[in-house]
Amino acid sequence: MCAAWATIHRCTLIQHTRINVAFQASIFIREHTFKEKLYENLRGVVSRYALMLIAKEKARVGKCGCTMRRTHGLPCSCQIGRMATIPFTAVDQHWRRLTSTSAPDESQPVLGLSIATELEVIAKMFEEANVPRRQAIKERLREFAYPDQTSMCPPPNKLPTRGRPNEPKCSSRRIPSSWENVDAIAGSKQASNSSAPQGKGCKTRSVKRKSIPLKQSAPKKRSKRIASNTAKLPPQHLKGKVYSANYIHEVPEFLREYVIDIQNVEDDGNCGYRCTSSLMGKGEQNWRQI
Question: Smallest Cα–Cα separation from 249: which of 265, 236, 235?
């Protein structure tokens, strides 16, 4: 029984936390959909779910049966069409309660709810701060005092945002290299020589040059290697040699005559150190000394 009560208590606490989170979201979150003048008196003081129902009722097309007003205590579509701004009193008290504690009696003065102490601390902080700090405090206070306004201002001049700006002084062309300048000068000289006027009595004869096609060399045929499963045998002058490990067929033929001995070291990732240690005469097992 005690375990069941503990589980029920834990579930109740989770639900209470979710309800408080929803209340805080309704107070502080300002969605873009509800920034119209129609919801000016309801932002931050009415549940977000109620605002969603009002927006859905506003977008509804068809005959209004005033069902929303009778069942939910919210303005229906016919009332919304006649309102420029929905008054705070048009929403039922159920949607205006954004706290999980007991609602205080509005006829009695509220005790313990005052910001006089906080305002004194803020005023003292403002007097002791420097100029940048004062500007920051003032901007934060303006956000609370005037939530519908902003400190941002438009630019003094409308800036062109389309197309590339015209900058005749700056060119995107690269600087030509020295050999390009030489080719350009040589080309201009040849053009001037060909276009120069010739003297009287001088006849020019155009010579037609025959283009001789170059001989295309036949593509080299790659020799096909015949794969064989049998390993190549060592040459005749290596048949008398005896190695520690018979891996001479793995060595290229032009290097086999220089091979003195072959040892097969352990393949544990340190084979290079093992080979070096063995060739230095320290033995394969002393590879850690390398």
Answer: 235
